[in-house]
Amino acid sequence: MTTTLITGANKGLGFETARRLVGAGHTVYVASRDAGRGRVAAERLGARAVALDVTDDASVAAAARAVEADGGLDVLVNNAGIQVEMGDDQAVAGAAEVTAEMMRRTFETNVFGMVRVLHAFLPLLRRSGAPVVVNVSSGLASLSRMTDPGRPGYPYPGVAYPASKAAVNMVTVQYAKAFPQMRINAVEPGFTRTDLNGNSGLQTVEQGAEIIVRMAQVGPDGPTGGYFDAEGPLAW
Question: Residue 91 has what DSSP assignment?
């Protein structure tokens, strides 16, 4: 039985990924900052709930201990993320408006939180016979795409979110090199309708979760250190 933990899994892409992996036979931990919402989501899915705030050392350590006590972990999906530069009116703070505080808050969850979770769960993953890590990135993290006027994401004015996801990509590459026995990849779900973007995305969570679910199930001979969307590898 494959055991999988998904951060930020009480709604959106995380919830849909959990639903699909439960259906594929995984034992799934729905990790959620809000323990109550996590329990409700887990009950709906037939999954297990674990309280986990990626910005809090003690919370992450407690979650790792709980999962270890239950038997260990095979797959980690780092899905939790925020986009603080987008206001309630869906206006995105551009280069003239972005502040160091916006950058700090974004990186605290999207980058430092991901590394915090990776660090805490690495001992469990290293005991697995087929460990897998999926880091949810974004097409806005691609320097190739963001410097090509012909690409859809080129006009996006924000700084903090794309920068944080570019950092996610580099963390992915470096961890993949450090742990060649693991399959560690970054994925771009696409512009999906979730609370992250005020439900302004162009595709459903079912479509967005496709690449996350696929990469969560790669075998020991699968790719590692890559960056993928539903159609295949992406240019960094």
Answer: P
